[in-house]
TrEMBL record, chain A:
Keywords: Amino-acid transport, Signal, Transport. Belongs to the leucine-binding protein family. CDD domains: PBP1_ABC_LIVBP-like. Residues 1-24 form the signal peptide. Residues 62-407 form the Leucine-binding protein domain. This is Branched chain amino acid ABC transporter substrate-binding protein. InterPro entries: Leu-bd, Leu_Ile_Val-bd, Peripla_BP_I. PROSITE patterns: PROKAR_LIPOPROTEIN (PS51257). It comes from Brevibacillus parabrevis. PANTHER family: AMINO ACID BINDING PROTEIN, LEU/ILE/VAL-BINDING ABC TRANSPORTER SUBUNIT.
């Protein structure tokens, strides 16, 4: 306790002393002192290149928040979003500095808890420097928090919430760049039926808004197409033993297991299913798209199919270079959620930029930023192409199919 | 048609159940002596899983696992994990529980919850710093499986879990019943002040209890990581909860009860997960397996409030 | 040593308290964003509690701070009012659990189930969700129904409490803890799965949009209004708590807590007494659940996990089990810590990092530290304040009071009268 307060006092003193001398170049010196194992955070990168322009930020501070779980068992996903958003923001610091603005990331931990999400949202809307939110991971947190953003006219761009309901309530501030469940689900089901030629299916979901929402859509489509449903079961998130449900699967031996959920469970499911001698297809949504999926599932990952709205970045030379650069600066593997975070942040920053320009180079209002973001059209992000419709959904609802090889996922094609 | 998977379901249930059983022993030992729910015990299990996995990962990257007999490797890993988690348990007792011995009954619970949060995040930060992620995937030492015809296949690792769990339980029982220290432990569990009058060093006995309970928990963590392959800092909470339930089901404070309770709970979960959906035609699916397990627990406690093996304490006036 | 200084401590002079309040109110008025000023105002309640003056004056000052000063200086800032109303929600719940754990000594790890019952009661019927299983397209109800639903929530949760309590309360001690834990989990899982075969709770998708309260056509959706609603409910609950504490039932609870056997032999019906505690505690949680649902406008089962029950239990024990001011302080402390203090601390660290003063690798980003610090705080609080922040006071003067009363003068002693009292004044 005592030590802690000493540290905070010490750092407070440091803060004031640096603020007094008015120098922003400190990050240069500390940048080198970082030890190899830890990895260099991205934020030092841009300021290193432009330490000359320290005094140019007289236009004011513009904060863009992220709201994702940064602690608890979903923090690896939440952190991926935050890291991607941070990377995007740091890349464009210079651009804004030229206009006289200092853009900062304002990361918040919503702990995957609706209460915390809402109180954070209240904090964000009562802070006049905050101009946008990238978030959330969980629809259950996003929906109540977005009520508050709506009241504060704070634009929210969601990188991950697929729940249909989110944009159906007519909130102006709510946008998302990812696909809705009712876009991704049916296409996934049709791909399974038409291309993979499955006749029987077993659906497993993780009893979350995302997992069940997606699975319900898949189930509907399967029923429409006459694919026989052998089972529809829920599992508990966070557990490591799914043999109970998988024994059911092996008794019924379906052509395909469709899993609605995220890779920590998906990886274990496919691994344990293969250990039990299951030979059919294993398919999921964009929740399975992660480098960790390969680590968790091991060899069993081979052949796992998943859908995603993200076009393949690593196909092009430029994309590969981008991915390399990302890994180098953030010292983290490239996750889909990071790219969603990256693209969401860029959508907001573009809006802020537009608004600044429209406002004659002065600090815009939140409404202006909201308007500008809402008008986003044909923005080509790193993975996704973004055009918002009236509701704030991304109209560019192409769904792509990917398949895991032994050590990476490969692009298969567009789902028709 | 569904019955043909029954043997397989039983095998899976037993594997899970024996893990619950060993972790439940840790809860029940501490409870027997201090009458206090050591909420952080699940976290000690988790630390054990991480220590074991790290040992394997590091020795794998050093090439030490090449050509080593997997049994030897597992044995060494278990020893290291047990020593470290045992020490951790004793340390936690010393720092966070012992000063609270005279305090109101529920206060150590707060401290234990604090320790639990602390351990989760410490492991998460350490792993994030060292490996850039906190999901760890353990190298598998045993890959084969024993096939019982078309009835069931028992993966070698599952079999090892069961065998080692039984070995641990038997040695603990022998220790408690046959050795001097074991007798001292039972004495302290019965009556601390009388035991201390009989020249038993109560502090030492409590330390020993934490040492044994924690190292058993840590060892189970290693087995867990081996069996399921993937671990994260939050596995302790769920498994700890189940293990504690198992301990209560068997009669908390009773070693035999914890073992039986654990195995029973594992079997119940496995059975309900596999058969509930088909039997109710999808109305109640596998997601109700915890409901089923808890309902059984409640039913048992209603008819036998002291648990399956617990002794009914006659209150004297 | 600490005890000694505590005993000689007579209380804070009234003037100091008033200066404190005035000072921080002014500070908050002029520096809208100062978290310290806001916390200063909130902590003035504790100060008032320890002020060396008469009870009536304390009450007046406390009410003035809560009803006038805080809304006046912090009402503009939605975030502060949000924090204040969340604090209020947890204070109310902790007070409810205090009856079960603190007074009656029943360790309840499934308390959040009653909270969920209240929240779902309002959520289901105030949205179109109820149309799924009730014919006639009668729903959604308007926000004016919020007020009657406070009572409905209370009744629903109380019924839940009795229904759960009837079987559960046969088991004792830590067995009770695990049985209530089991029931809490069962209820959460059932709520999470009740979207089939009949869709009652909409499962993991949750229920939305839950209408905000309305009164005479005014929509009360902002934290400012919820602050007052919560305050009103807390006043009611505190009053009930105090009344209970000194009532026959309250004394029976304490007797049961201290020694079941002795209580039983004094003619206290164990099951009824425990059931009453269970139902009372549950009903408070039900009321708060309705408010919570209306405040959040969306609820799903993730708000009602075991961690929530544990969190509320932590508040009660940390504050001082059985002590009303202690529980209020404990709940306020834990909630402020979680929703504001740790947040501000990590934001502060983050701003330091942004300006390059400290340099932490991404893995150790300050925004991830919250639970870790919370854990450390819990351990320290348990170690250094094992009886709670404000320990429960034992009534020393009970015996004196009896001696001074009419019974003391009776030649037959007090026993005859007491039994007469027990049988005669049952109602």
């Amino acid at each position: 306790m005592k030590k802690l307060s000493h540290i905070s006092i010490l750092s407070a003193v440091l803060a004031t002393s640096v603020a007094l001398t008015g120098c922003a170049g400190t990050s240069n010196s500390s940048g080198g002192s970082n030890t190899g194992g830890g990895g260099q955070p991205a934020q030092n990168q841009p300021s290193t290149s432009g330490s000359g322009g320290g005094a140019a930020t007289d236009g004011g501070v513009i904060k863009i928040a992220t709201q994702t779980p940064l602690s608890g068992n979903q923090s690896s996903l939440g952190d991926a979003i935050k890291t991607g958003a941070e990377y995007a923001l740091n890349q464009r610091k210079e651009e804004f500095k030229k206009l006289g603005f200092d853009i900062q990331l304002f990361p918040q931990d919503d702990q995957a808890d609706p209460k915390i999400g809402v109180s954070n949202a209240e904090m964000l809307i009562s802070n006049p420097d905050v101009y946008g939110v990238v978030g959330h991971l969980n629809s259950g947190v996003a929906i109540p928090s977005s009520v508050k953003y709506e009241e504060g006219k704070l634009v929210m761009v969601s990188p991950a919430n697929t729940a249909v309901k989110l944009t159906e309530e007519g909130k102006k501030t709510v946008h998302r760049i990812c696909a809705r469940d009712d876009a991704q689900g049916p296409k996934a089901a049709m791909y399974a039926k038409n291309t993979l030629g499955v006749k029987t299916a077993f659906i497993i979901h993780d009893k979350t808004a995302y997992g069940q929402g997606l699975s319900d859509q898949v189930k509907l489509q399967f029923e429409k197409d006459g694919v026989q449903l052998l089972g529809y079961e829920g599992i508990t998130q966070g557990e490591k033993d799914y043999s109970a449900v998988l024994n059911q699967v092996s008794a019924k031996n379906p052509d395909i297991i469709f899993f609605g959920g995220l890779y920590p469970e998906g990886g274990i499911l496919v691994k344990q299913a293969r250990e039990k001698g299951y030979k059919g297809y294993f398919m999921g949504g964009d929740g399975l798209d992660s480098s960790d999926m390969i680590k968790i599932a091991g060899d069993a990952v081979e052949g796992v199919v998943f859908t995603s709205v993200a076009g393949d970045v690593t196909q092009t030379e430029e994309g590969k270079k981008w991915a390399e650069e990302y890994k180098k600066t953030t010292n983290k593997p490239l996750e889909t959620y990071s790219v969603y975070g990256f693209d969401s942040m860029n959508v907001i920053l573009n809006g802020v930029m537009e608004a600044i320009k429209a406002n004659g180079g002065k600090k815009p209002t939140r409404e202006q930023v909201l308007e500008a973001v809402h008008k986003t059209k044909d923005f080509q992000g790193q993975f996704t192409k973004v055009t918002f419709d009236e509701k704030g959904d991304n109209t560019n609802a192409d769904v792509f199919i990917y398949k895991y090889d032994k050590d990476k996922s490969t692009f298969v094609g567009k789902a028709e | 048609m569904m019955l043909n998977i029954l043997p397989q379901v039983l095998v899976d249930g037993l594997t899970l159940g024996f893990m619950y059983a060993v972790v439940a022993l840790g809860y029940t030992m501490v409870y027997g002596i201090l009458e206090f729910i050591n909420f952080a015990h699940g976290e000690i299990f988790m630390v054990g899983a991480f220590v074991g996995t790290e040992v394997l990962l590091i020795s794998d990257s050093l090439g030490a696992l090449e050509g080593m007999n997997p049994f030897v490797a597992l044995f060494l890993t278990l020893i290291i994990a047990m020593v470290l988690t045992g020490a951790l348990g004793v340390g936690i007792e010393r720092v966070a529980y012992r000063p609270l011995r005279g305090a109101p009954r529920l206060v150590p619970l707060i401290s234990a919850i604090g320790v639990s949060f602390l351990l989760q995040d410490l492991v998460r930060f350490t792993e994030a710093l060292a490996r850039n992620e906190f999901y760890l995937n353990s190298p598998t030492l045993f890959t084969g499986s024993i096939s019982l015809g078309s009835i069931a296949t028992i993966p070698t690792k599952g079999l090892i879990v069961i065998v080692l769990a039984i070995v641990m339980m038997i040695s603990l029982t022998l220790f408690i019943n046959k050795t001097k220290w074991g007798i001292a432990m039972r004495a302290v569990a019965q009556d601390q002040s009388t035991a201390s009058l009989m020249t038993i060093n109560v502090d030492k006995v409590i330390m020993l209890t934490f040492l044994i309970g924690s190292s058993l928990g840590g060892a189970t963590g290693v087995l867990f990581a081996q069996n399921y392959g993937t671990i994260d800092p939050y596995i302790g909470f769920i498994l700890g909860l189940k293990a504690f339930t198992a301990a209560v089901l068997g009669g908390i404070g009773n070693l035999r009860g914890a073992m039986v309770g654990g195995v029973l709970l594992g079997l119940l979960e496995s059975l309900s997960g596999a058969f509930m959906g088909p039997l109710t035609n999808g109305a109640f699916g596998a997601e109700y397996k915890d409901v089923f397990a808890f309902s059984i627990l409640i039913l048992v406690l209603l008819f036998k409030p002291e648990g399956l093996f617990g002794e009914a304490v006659k209150e004297k006036v | 040593m600490a005890n000694l200084t505590w005993k000689t401590f007579k209380g804070i002079p009234l003037a100091l308290t008033l200066v404190w309040i005035a000072g921080f109110a002014a500070a908050l008025h002029f520096m809208d964003k100062s978290v310290i000023a806001f916390l200063g105002i909130l902590s003035s309640i504790v100060l008032i509690y320890y002020t060396n003056t008469s009870k009536a004056i304390k009450m007046v000052i406390g009410a003035a701070v809560l009803l006038i000063v805080i809304p006046l200086v912090a009402g503009e800032n939605r975030y502060y009012m949000e924090v204040a109303s969340q604090v209020g929600i947890y204070v109310a719940m902790a007070l409810g659990l205090n009856i079960v754990v603190g007074f009656a000594g029943l360790l309840d790890l499934g308390y959040v189930a009653f909270f969920a019952a209240g929240a779902y009661a309002y959520a289901i019927f105030s949205t179109s969700q109820a149309n799924e299983f009730i014919a006639g397209n009668l729903f959604p109800l308007s926000g004016e129904w919020f007020w009657p639903f406070l009572i409905v929530g209370l009744i629903v949760a109380a019924v839940f409490g009795v229904l759960l309590g009837l079987p559960v309360l046969r088991v004792k001690g830590d067995y009770l803890a695990i049985v209530t834990l089991g029931f809490g989990e069962i209820i959460r899982i059932i709520f999470n799965n009740l979207d089939k075969p009949i869709n009652i709770t909409n499962g993991p998708q949750g229920i939305t949009p839950i209408p905000s309260p309305e009164l005479f056509g005014i929509k009360m959706g902002t934290p400012f209004f919820f602050y007052f609603i919560v305050l009103f409910v807390i006043a009611f609950i505190v009053l009930a708590n105090i009344r209970f504490e000194h009532s026959r039932l309250g004394r029976a609870w304490i007797a049961v807590r201290e020694d079941e056997l002795a209580a039983q032999s004094m003619g206290i019906s164990l099951l009824n007494t425990k059931l009453a505690a269970f139902a009372t505690g549950a009903s408070f949680a039900g009321v708060v659940g309705v408010i919570f649902a209306a405040k959040q406008t969306f609820i799903d089962p993730t708000s009602f996990t075991l961690m929530e029950s544990i969190g509320i239990l932590v508040m009660v024990i940390l504050g001082g089990s059985g002590s009303i001011p202690g529980v209020v302080l404990g709940a306020a402390f834990v909630t402020i810590l979680q929703v504001q203090l740790l947040k501000e601390f990590s934001n502060f660290l983050h701003s330091l990092q942004q300006s390059g003063i400290i340099n932490l690798p991404n893995q150790l980003d300050p925004s991830k530290f919250q639970r870790l610090i919370f854990g450390i705080m819990l351990i320290l609080a348990a170690l250094y304040r094992p009886n709670g922040l404000i320990p429960a006071k034992r009534k020393k003067n009970d015996l004196d009071a009896i001696k001074a009363s009419d019974y003391g003068k009776e030649k037959l002693g007090i026993l005859g009268k007491l039994s007469q009292l027990a049988s005669g004044k049952q109602s």
